[in-house]
Amino acid sequence: MEFHKLSALEIAEGVKKGSWTASEVLSAHLDRIKKFDGQINSVVTLSEESAYSDARETDNAVSEGRDPGPLAGVPFLVKDNFCTDGIRTTCCSKMLSDWIPDYDATAVKRMKDAGAVLMGKTNMDEFAMGSTTESSIFGPTLNPRDFNRVPGGSSGGSAAAVAAGFCPIALGSDTGGSVRQPSAFCGVQGMKPSYGQISRYGIVAYASSLDQVGPITRNIADMAAVLGVLAGPDPNDTTCDAYERPSFSETASAGIKGKKIAVLTGYDAESMDSPLIEAIEKAVEYCRSAGAEIVEAKLPITMKHAVACYYMVALGDASSKLACFDGMRYGHHSDGRSLVEMYKRSRNQGFGKEVRKRILIGTCILTRGYYENYYVPATKVRQMIADEYAELFKGVDSLICPISPALPYKKGLVEEDPVRMYLGDAFSSIANLAGLPSISLNIGFTEEGLPTNVQLMGPRFGDAGLLALAHAIENKAGSPPIADIEKKGGCRE
Amino acid sequence: MIKKMEMDEERLREVLGFSCIGLPEEEYAEVLDRVNAVLRMCDDMQELDSSNVSPFEWDVMKAPARREDIPVTWDGRDRFLDQAPVRDGDFFHVPRIIARDDVEMEEEE
Question: Which is nearest to A377 in space by CA: A312, A311, A299, A318?
Fold first, then answer.
């Protein structure tokens, strides 16, 4: 049985029926990781012992007639900034290279409670600051669709692992596109739910007013099932909304007949890679043929100012969030003759180059003069962007637009032109600024085998309707296949 | 009033102090270029009339969810202390606040 080709829901159904055991499924996936991950470096820590223990617990539940949960025996991986009880959580930084939390993030706990089996942790840009997964202390992750290209980031390890068939579900965190852009680059489906949909308790923060947990899968039915498990209020995260959630799995198959869908216009389409424009045209056609009405939308404030606004807010937030890494309570420590010297040496040695630079820019933004002239205007522009979207969604159900202006980058571009990397977040960061749900949906592949995609956005807490749209388009476009990683050979030491 | 600003080396030194980050002298120019490129990217934003707009705030922050204030017994003290870079019995060992000169310093990386 080729378990790695099954969806999460197919695996769970087979485990519940007794067609196969959770332990068998786990063993097959771990073997695949050990055999092929040496080529792409998507997994940084495997937790085999605890995984087998959890799988046996699921198998015992099935054999004893107890409910093993909706994701019974489904193996999953999480980004290395999710706290995992007894498993190191490094944020792929020297700062936390030996840190072992003594609790699970709420998202991890809910997956386990649903019967899913945690196999380990995935690679990421250090402290989630990047869009290529090249700044990890464990070395870069490569794109499983093309080893000469980056997998995107910062959740590049999670997206690459799902694309490579190492797991049907991986979790990432999304501050400005960090789940959706790597999903787009690796040819899988990625979602950033509404702000307040999923608890962030136990996630090492980058910028709290923007961060959200997001699932990465190979099809929308799996995504809806995962969202159903993860969503809901949590007393440990007061930003998590208490509204009554619908059944995401049921609403995902509701169809889009009669829905009004806007297509974004008024951006510089000529500067984009042409297959991505063609992907939008295809998605629009699929929507029309599924019975939706298509209209055009312009968002002038958003398109001109979103990326600048995003970097002001994100870097300002980050500089204050990362102040807690002082070398005293946990993390990297270096001695010093004075308290300040100890802070400086610990932070200098613990943080990598990109993180140090982002902290510096963020600190600069929050100092006198810059705060009044840059940070405060950015928070007002953020409100104007949120208002622009609230107005749009009074008249339409969803929006289709690009997620990235470019196909997966060649390796090393971030060193050459970091500001160009920032501009790559122009479309993806909007959903974080306004707190909207957003899905990066695969639409197919170019002749060279590079994935093409679109971004779908909906009103805040309109996650269920957005899944229905994604499902309707996926029904026409097909769900993406597993990357052809076997033919490229390779093994892990 | 629109005020476009650039960062210079003197201000960079000040920011390095605030952020408790050190930077080799040879990287100053690169970091200044990067900071100023980001600031220039944001200059256009100041031209928007936002005089009647309030700064963004999440609705949940206006009325955050509350939870019962119930004491919980927690037995993770030793596990937390085990994560401390320097542990001294039942305490985190922290450096003196007043500078001292009796520590042999390792070489800066």
Answer: A312
